[in-house]
Protein backbone atom coordinates (compact mmCIF):
# COMPACT_ATOMS: atom_id res chain seq x y z
CA UNK A 1 0.00 0.00 0.00
CA UNK A 2 1.68 3.26 -1.11
CA UNK A 3 0.61 6.16 1.10
CA UNK A 4 -0.04 9.52 -0.48
CA UNK A 5 1.07 12.74 1.17
CA UNK A 6 -0.75 15.75 -0.33
CA UNK A 7 1.75 18.50 -1.08
CA UNK A 8 0.43 21.51 0.83
CA UNK A 9 1.45 24.11 -1.80
CA UNK A 10 4.92 25.58 -2.10
CA UNK A 11 7.36 24.47 0.60
CA UNK A 12 8.84 27.33 2.51
CA UNK A 13 12.58 27.69 2.88
CA UNK A 14 14.13 29.75 5.64
CA UNK A 15 15.78 31.64 2.83
CA UNK A 16 18.87 29.55 3.13
CA UNK A 17 18.86 25.78 3.02
CA UNK A 18 16.26 24.18 5.20
CA UNK A 19 12.60 23.29 4.98
CA UNK A 20 10.26 24.47 7.67
CA UNK A 21 7.40 22.56 9.24
CA UNK A 22 4.01 23.87 10.36
CA UNK A 23 5.69 25.61 13.33
CA UNK A 24 8.58 27.05 11.29
CA UNK A 25 10.97 24.45 12.70
CA UNK A 26 13.74 23.70 10.23
CA UNK A 27 14.88 20.13 9.52
CA UNK A 28 18.34 20.18 11.12
CA UNK A 29 19.02 16.91 12.90
CA UNK A 30 18.60 13.32 11.76
CA UNK A 31 18.80 10.42 14.18
CA UNK A 32 19.64 7.25 12.28
CA UNK A 33 18.74 3.97 13.97
CA UNK A 34 20.96 1.31 12.41
CA UNK A 35 19.45 -1.61 14.36
CA UNK A 36 16.53 -2.37 16.67
CA UNK A 37 18.68 -4.81 18.63
CA UNK A 38 20.52 -4.21 21.88
CA UNK A 39 22.62 -6.23 24.30
CA UNK A 40 21.11 -4.40 27.27
CA UNK A 41 17.52 -4.47 28.59
CA UNK A 42 17.07 -1.09 30.26
CA UNK A 43 13.63 -1.09 31.91
CA UNK A 44 12.71 2.38 30.63
CA UNK A 45 13.40 1.40 27.02
CA UNK A 46 13.45 -2.37 26.40
CA UNK A 47 12.17 -4.19 29.50
CA UNK A 48 13.38 -7.80 29.47
CA UNK A 49 9.95 -9.03 30.57
CA UNK A 50 8.67 -7.94 27.13
CA UNK A 51 11.78 -8.20 24.99
CA UNK A 52 12.98 -11.63 26.04
CA UNK A 53 15.03 -14.29 24.24
CA UNK A 54 12.14 -15.12 21.88
CA UNK A 55 11.41 -11.56 20.82
CA UNK A 56 11.50 -11.29 17.03
CA UNK A 57 13.71 -8.36 16.08
CA UNK A 58 13.86 -7.17 12.47
CA UNK A 59 15.30 -9.71 10.01
CA UNK A 60 18.44 -8.55 8.18
CA UNK A 61 16.70 -8.23 4.81
CA UNK A 62 14.33 -5.65 6.27
CA UNK A 63 16.94 -3.28 7.64
CA UNK A 64 18.60 -0.64 5.48
CA UNK A 65 22.01 -1.42 4.08
CA UNK A 66 24.86 1.02 4.75
CA UNK A 67 24.58 2.16 1.13
CA UNK A 68 20.85 2.90 1.55
CA UNK A 69 21.52 4.77 4.81
CA UNK A 70 24.29 6.77 3.13
CA UNK A 71 22.00 7.68 0.23
CA UNK A 72 19.14 8.80 2.46
CA UNK A 73 21.52 10.71 4.74
CA UNK A 74 22.81 12.62 1.70
CA UNK A 75 19.25 13.56 0.75
CA UNK A 76 18.46 14.77 4.27
CA UNK A 77 21.64 16.86 4.25
CA UNK A 78 20.50 18.39 0.98
CA UNK A 79 17.29 19.37 2.78
CA UNK A 80 19.14 21.20 5.55
CA UNK A 81 20.25 18.50 8.01
CA UNK A 82 23.56 19.44 9.65
CA UNK A 83 23.86 16.78 12.31
CA UNK A 84 23.60 13.03 11.95
CA UNK A 85 23.36 10.97 15.11
CA UNK A 86 23.90 7.24 14.73
CA UNK A 87 21.81 5.29 17.22
CA UNK A 88 19.94 2.01 17.68
CA UNK A 89 18.93 -0.09 19.75
CA UNK A 90 22.63 -0.32 20.43
CA UNK A 91 24.39 0.80 17.21
CA UNK A 92 27.64 -1.02 18.01
CA UNK A 93 25.96 -4.42 17.85
CA UNK A 94 25.63 -3.80 14.10
CA UNK A 95 28.65 -5.30 12.37
CA UNK A 96 31.28 -3.06 10.78
CA UNK A 97 29.70 0.14 12.03
CA UNK A 98 32.94 2.13 11.52
CA UNK A 99 32.42 1.47 7.78
CA UNK A 100 29.12 3.34 7.89
CA UNK A 101 30.76 6.24 9.74
CA UNK A 102 33.46 6.33 7.04
CA UNK A 103 30.69 6.51 4.38
CA UNK A 104 28.90 9.38 6.17
CA UNK A 105 31.97 11.40 7.17
CA UNK A 106 32.63 12.95 3.71
CA UNK A 107 29.09 14.41 3.56
CA UNK A 108 28.99 18.21 3.18
CA UNK A 109 26.11 20.63 3.68
CA UNK A 110 24.93 22.64 0.64
CA UNK A 111 27.26 25.46 1.77
CA UNK A 112 30.22 23.08 1.99
CA UNK A 113 30.38 22.60 5.75
CA UNK A 114 31.26 19.17 7.18
CA UNK A 115 28.25 17.36 8.59
CA UNK A 116 28.49 16.74 12.32
CA UNK A 117 28.56 12.97 12.91
CA UNK A 118 27.74 11.81 16.44
CA UNK A 119 26.92 8.44 18.00
CA UNK A 120 24.98 7.33 21.08
CA UNK A 121 25.99 4.02 22.65
CA UNK A 122 25.75 2.03 25.86
CA UNK A 123 29.54 1.86 25.81
CA UNK A 124 29.83 -1.92 26.04
CA UNK A 125 31.88 -2.22 22.81
CA UNK A 126 33.89 1.00 23.05
CA UNK A 127 37.15 -0.54 24.23
CA UNK A 128 37.22 -2.39 20.90
CA UNK A 129 35.62 0.21 18.61
CA UNK A 130 36.40 3.72 19.89
CA UNK A 131 39.61 4.04 17.87
CA UNK A 132 38.21 2.63 14.60
CA UNK A 133 35.17 4.93 14.94
CA UNK A 134 37.37 7.99 15.49
CA UNK A 135 39.63 7.00 12.58
CA UNK A 136 36.52 6.62 10.39
CA UNK A 137 35.51 10.22 11.08
CA UNK A 138 33.29 10.13 14.15
CA UNK A 139 33.56 13.47 15.96
CA UNK A 140 31.34 13.17 19.01
CA UNK A 141 30.11 10.39 21.25
CA UNK A 142 27.44 10.07 23.91
CA UNK A 143 27.54 7.14 26.33
CA UNK A 144 24.61 6.06 28.51
CA UNK A 145 25.57 5.50 32.14
CA UNK A 146 22.73 5.51 34.66
CA UNK A 147 24.82 5.03 37.82
CA UNK A 148 28.38 4.53 39.09
CA UNK A 149 27.09 2.12 41.71
CA UNK A 150 27.63 -1.35 40.28
CA UNK A 151 24.45 -2.90 41.77
CA UNK A 152 22.28 -0.03 40.60
CA UNK A 153 23.88 -0.04 37.15
CA UNK A 154 23.40 -3.78 36.76
CA UNK A 155 19.71 -3.36 37.66
CA UNK A 156 19.31 -0.42 35.27
CA UNK A 157 20.76 -2.29 32.27
CA UNK A 158 18.67 -5.40 32.92
CA UNK A 159 21.46 -7.84 31.96
CA UNK A 160 23.73 -7.63 35.01
CA UNK A 161 26.44 -5.83 32.99
CA UNK A 162 29.25 -4.48 35.18
CA UNK A 163 29.72 -0.71 35.34
CA UNK A 164 33.52 -1.06 35.20
CA UNK A 165 33.39 -2.19 31.58
CA UNK A 166 31.38 0.86 30.51
CA UNK A 167 33.76 3.14 32.43
CA UNK A 168 36.60 1.47 30.55
CA UNK A 169 34.75 2.13 27.29
CA UNK A 170 34.44 5.81 28.20
CA UNK A 171 38.19 5.89 28.90
CA UNK A 172 38.79 4.34 25.47
CA UNK A 173 36.64 7.02 23.84
CA UNK A 174 38.74 9.71 25.47
CA UNK A 175 41.98 7.97 24.46
CA UNK A 176 40.63 7.98 20.87
CA UNK A 177 40.08 11.75 21.03
CA UNK A 178 36.26 11.62 21.13
CA UNK A 179 36.14 14.41 23.70
CA UNK A 180 34.42 15.79 25.61
CA UNK A 181 32.52 12.56 26.15
CA UNK A 182 28.85 13.26 26.82
CA UNK A 183 27.26 10.95 29.35
CA UNK A 184 23.49 10.42 29.39
CA UNK A 185 21.74 9.47 32.64
CA UNK A 186 18.07 8.51 32.63
CA UNK A 187 16.78 9.17 36.15
CA UNK A 188 14.00 6.97 37.45
CA UNK A 189 12.68 7.50 40.95
CA UNK A 190 13.18 4.51 43.12
CA UNK A 191 16.07 3.24 40.99
CA UNK A 192 18.91 5.75 40.59
CA UNK A 193 18.00 9.23 41.84
CA UNK A 194 20.58 8.71 44.62
CA UNK A 195 23.30 8.52 41.94
CA UNK A 196 23.05 12.19 40.91
CA UNK A 197 25.82 13.59 43.12
CA UNK A 198 28.32 10.75 42.66
CA UNK A 199 27.91 10.99 38.87
CA UNK A 200 28.30 14.77 38.98
CA UNK A 201 31.46 14.51 41.12
CA UNK A 202 32.91 11.92 38.73
CA UNK A 203 32.11 13.97 35.62
CA UNK A 204 33.58 17.13 37.19
CA UNK A 205 36.77 15.23 38.00
CA UNK A 206 37.00 13.52 34.59
CA UNK A 207 35.89 16.46 32.44
CA UNK A 208 32.88 14.65 30.98
CA UNK A 209 29.60 16.44 30.19
CA UNK A 210 26.70 14.84 32.06
CA UNK A 211 23.14 15.09 30.77
CA UNK A 212 20.37 14.06 33.11
CA UNK A 213 17.27 12.88 31.23
CA UNK A 214 13.76 12.92 32.66
CA UNK A 215 12.19 9.47 32.40
CA UNK A 216 9.73 9.53 29.50
CA UNK A 217 6.56 7.70 28.46
CA UNK A 218 8.17 6.43 25.29
CA UNK A 219 6.68 3.42 23.52
CA UNK A 220 4.09 1.26 25.27
CA UNK A 221 6.05 -1.20 27.43
CA UNK A 222 7.97 0.65 30.17
CA UNK A 223 5.01 1.12 32.54
CA UNK A 224 5.65 4.86 32.76
CA UNK A 225 4.13 6.83 35.64
CA UNK A 226 4.58 10.54 36.30
CA UNK A 227 5.48 9.67 39.91
CA UNK A 228 8.61 7.90 38.69
CA UNK A 229 9.92 11.06 37.02
CA UNK A 230 12.70 12.98 38.81
CA UNK A 231 11.94 16.55 37.67
CA UNK A 232 14.68 18.77 36.27
CA UNK A 233 14.09 21.31 39.05
CA UNK A 234 14.95 18.67 41.66
CA UNK A 235 18.17 17.72 39.85
CA UNK A 236 19.19 21.38 39.58
CA UNK A 237 18.51 21.96 43.28
CA UNK A 238 20.44 18.85 44.31
CA UNK A 239 23.52 19.78 42.31
CA UNK A 240 23.35 23.51 43.07
CA UNK A 241 23.38 22.72 46.79
CA UNK A 242 26.65 20.82 46.33
CA UNK A 243 28.29 22.91 43.58
CA UNK A 244 26.58 26.20 42.62
CA UNK A 245 25.50 26.25 38.98
CA UNK A 246 24.07 28.86 36.63
CA UNK A 247 22.09 28.51 33.37
CA UNK A 248 23.79 28.90 29.99
CA UNK A 249 22.24 30.03 26.72
CA UNK A 250 21.44 27.23 24.23
CA UNK A 251 24.27 26.61 21.76
CA UNK A 252 21.76 26.65 18.88
CA UNK A 253 18.00 26.52 18.22
CA UNK A 254 16.81 23.01 18.85
CA UNK A 255 19.49 22.05 21.35
CA UNK A 256 17.76 19.35 23.39
CA UNK A 257 19.53 19.78 26.71
CA UNK A 258 19.22 22.77 28.99
CA UNK A 259 22.80 23.77 29.71
CA UNK A 260 24.10 24.65 33.21
CA UNK A 261 27.60 25.84 34.13
CA UNK A 262 29.42 25.21 37.40
CA UNK A 263 30.19 28.61 38.90
CA UNK A 264 33.60 27.32 39.96
CA UNK A 265 34.49 26.78 36.29
CA UNK A 266 34.62 22.98 36.52
CA UNK A 267 32.62 22.44 33.35
CA UNK A 268 28.95 22.14 32.54
CA UNK A 269 26.05 19.72 32.61
CA UNK A 270 22.80 19.34 30.74
CA UNK A 271 19.23 18.43 31.60
CA UNK A 272 16.76 17.01 29.08
CA UNK A 273 13.39 17.84 30.60
CA UNK A 274 10.89 16.51 28.06
CA UNK A 275 8.22 15.96 30.74
CA UNK A 276 8.39 19.03 33.00
CA UNK A 277 9.89 21.58 30.55
CA UNK A 278 8.94 20.39 27.03
CA UNK A 279 10.92 21.88 24.14
CA UNK A 280 8.80 20.92 21.13
CA UNK A 281 8.74 24.52 19.95
CA UNK A 282 12.37 24.24 18.85
CA UNK A 283 12.39 20.59 17.83
CA UNK A 284 14.36 20.22 14.60
CA UNK A 285 14.77 16.41 14.73
CA UNK A 286 13.71 13.72 12.34
CA UNK A 287 14.29 10.01 12.90
CA UNK A 288 15.08 7.25 10.45
CA UNK A 289 14.37 3.77 11.76
CA UNK A 290 16.44 0.69 10.95
CA UNK A 291 13.82 -0.53 8.48
CA UNK A 292 13.78 2.81 6.68
CA UNK A 293 10.76 4.63 8.12
CA UNK A 294 10.82 8.39 8.67
CA UNK A 295 9.41 9.50 12.02
CA UNK A 296 8.80 13.15 12.82
CA UNK A 297 8.54 12.73 16.61
CA UNK A 298 9.91 10.44 19.35
CA UNK A 299 6.33 9.74 20.38
CA UNK A 300 5.04 8.96 16.88
CA UNK A 301 2.44 6.24 16.44
CA UNK A 302 3.47 5.61 12.82
CA UNK A 303 6.18 6.44 10.27
CA UNK A 304 6.58 7.04 6.53
CA UNK A 305 8.11 4.18 4.54
CA UNK A 306 11.16 5.40 2.61
CA UNK A 307 12.64 1.92 2.11
CA UNK A 308 9.80 0.93 -0.20
CA UNK A 309 10.53 3.96 -2.37
CA UNK A 310 14.27 3.32 -2.27
CA UNK A 311 13.92 -0.30 -3.29
CA UNK A 312 11.32 0.56 -5.93
CA UNK A 313 13.93 2.66 -7.72
CA UNK A 314 12.86 6.18 -6.71
CA UNK A 315 15.20 8.96 -7.84
CA UNK A 316 16.92 11.32 -5.41
CA UNK A 317 14.53 14.07 -6.52
CA UNK A 318 11.51 11.88 -5.76
CA UNK A 319 12.90 11.00 -2.32
CA UNK A 320 13.76 14.65 -1.65
CA UNK A 321 10.27 15.85 -2.48
CA UNK A 322 8.71 13.03 -0.46
CA UNK A 323 10.78 13.84 2.65
CA UNK A 324 10.30 17.59 2.16
CA UNK A 325 6.54 17.14 1.83
CA UNK A 326 6.41 15.03 5.02
CA UNK A 327 8.40 17.60 6.98
CA UNK A 328 6.47 20.58 5.64
CA UNK A 329 3.18 19.28 7.06
CA UNK A 330 4.77 18.19 10.35
CA UNK A 331 2.92 19.50 13.43
CA UNK A 332 4.24 17.24 16.20
CA UNK A 333 4.45 18.60 19.73
CA UNK A 334 3.65 15.57 21.86
CA UNK A 335 5.49 16.62 25.00
CA UNK A 336 3.70 19.96 25.10
CA UNK A 337 0.36 18.21 24.75
CA UNK A 338 1.19 15.18 26.90
CA UNK A 339 -1.07 16.17 29.79
CA UNK A 340 -4.06 16.88 27.53
CA UNK A 341 -3.66 13.85 25.25
CA UNK A 342 -6.66 11.54 25.64
CA UNK A 343 -6.66 9.49 22.44
CA UNK A 344 -3.51 7.51 23.07
CA UNK A 345 -2.49 5.75 19.92
CA UNK A 346 0.12 3.04 20.61
CA UNK A 347 3.49 4.75 20.27
CA UNK A 348 6.41 3.16 18.47
CA UNK A 349 9.07 1.81 20.86
CA UNK A 350 11.98 4.19 21.52
CA UNK A 351 14.63 1.59 20.60
CA UNK A 352 13.03 1.32 17.15
CA UNK A 353 13.34 5.09 16.65
CA UNK A 354 16.82 5.56 17.97
CA UNK A 355 15.77 7.58 21.00
S1 LIG B 1 7.93 15.32 21.76
FE1 LIG B 1 8.24 15.16 19.56
S2 LIG B 1 8.06 17.24 18.79
FE2 LIG B 1 8.36 17.38 21.00
S3 LIG B 1 10.56 17.62 21.25
FE3 LIG B 1 10.14 15.42 21.39
S4 LIG B 1 10.40 14.65 19.33
FE4 LIG B 1 10.21 16.87 19.19
Would you kindly provide a written description of the structure presented here, covering whatever features stand out?
By secondary structure, the chain is α/β, with parallel strands linked by helices. It has one domain (13-353): Aldolase class I (TIM Barrel). 28% of the residues lie in helices and 16% in strands. It has a twelve-stranded mixed sheet with strand order 7-8-9-6-5-4-3-2-1-10-11-12. 42% of the residues are buried. Mean pLDDT is 93; it is low at 1-16. Iron/sulfur cluster (SF4) binds at residues 274, 279-280, 283, 285, 297-299, 332-335.
Name the features.
single chain; 355 residues; alpha/beta; TIM Barrel; 12-stranded mixed sheet; 11 helices; disordered N terminus; binds iron/sulfur cluster
CATH architectural group: Alpha-Beta Barrel
Number of strands: 12
Mean pLDDT: 93
Strand content: 15-25%
Distance between the termini: 27 Å
Short description:
The chain is of the alpha/beta class and 355 residues long.
SSE order and pairing:
Blueprint: E1 29-33, H1 66-78, E2 83-87, H2 97-104, E3 116-121, H3 126-136, E4 140-144, H4 150-157, H5 163-175, E5 182-187, H6 196-206, E6 209-214, H7 232-242, E7 245-248, E8 258-262, E9 268-272, E10 285-288, E11 293-295, E12 304-305, H8 307-311, H9 316-328, H10 334-337, H11 350-353
Parallel strand pairs: 1-2, 1-10, 2-3, 3-4, 4-5, 5-6, 6-9
Antiparallel strand pairs: 7-8, 8-9, 10-11, 11-12
